[in-house]
Amino acid sequence: MKLPFRDRPEKAKVKTPEDRMTLTEHLAELRTRIIRCALAVAVGTVIVLAFYDKVLDFMLEPYQDLCRAEPEKFQDCNLQFIGPLEGFATRLSISTWGGVILALPVIMWQIWRFVVPAMHAKEKKYAVPFVLSSVFLFLLGGVVAYFTLTPALDFLITWAGDDVDANFQVSKYVSLFGLMVLAFGITFLFPVLLVFLQLVGVLTPQVLQKNWRYAVVIIFVIAAVITPSGDPYSMMAMAIPMTLFYVISIVIGRIAQKRKRAREATTT
What we know:
The chain has 268 residues and is mainly alpha-helical. 74% of the residues lie in helices and 0% in strands. It has one domain (21-267).
């Protein structure tokens, strides 16, 4: 007697780039990855929600530091909300974005697993370094954004004028905080992309080194445009590490290139 689940077609497995998945199989694979990411975010959201007060205190620390240092600029060191639903919306927003950050390893792993079937076996070995470096650099960007927020707020308040006192709305502050962390986290993934493109042969370290002047200009322009606060402190805090990452990616690319040539020389 055959069991019903025995008659189900096996899931397509792609072992080499020469294997091809149908459009339906691609969509099914994408759906699976998205569901797993959503579940991870949901679990992370619940965790952040359980520790919401501590998370909010942590987020408010840059604002509180500035308030304690320059109390004459503030009407009140507490954030305000002006709508009955704003408190609930803020709690939900913080919990959701916190859940995304906690689920970041799972998200990066699912992205990599979705891309992996189109790669050769020698390129698949970079999965763990890709995930670990991506998570580390995103968190590093978030840390830089966190410590940049205090001078950024001071700069923005100064431009308001001496006769204007600050009284921040909680949703606006949380929105700026989240955008800062997101912008820095994403831009700090820049070297991962460059190294990956070199490893798969799309770019070479020679090309990156030859065009470094244009790259530096583009980096500073991107930093000026993408920085949510628009202040010079945040722009420099983003542009300088990205420039350093550009140089490091060239060095890593050259090391990988030399190792590849050495392997090719031993096999011939």
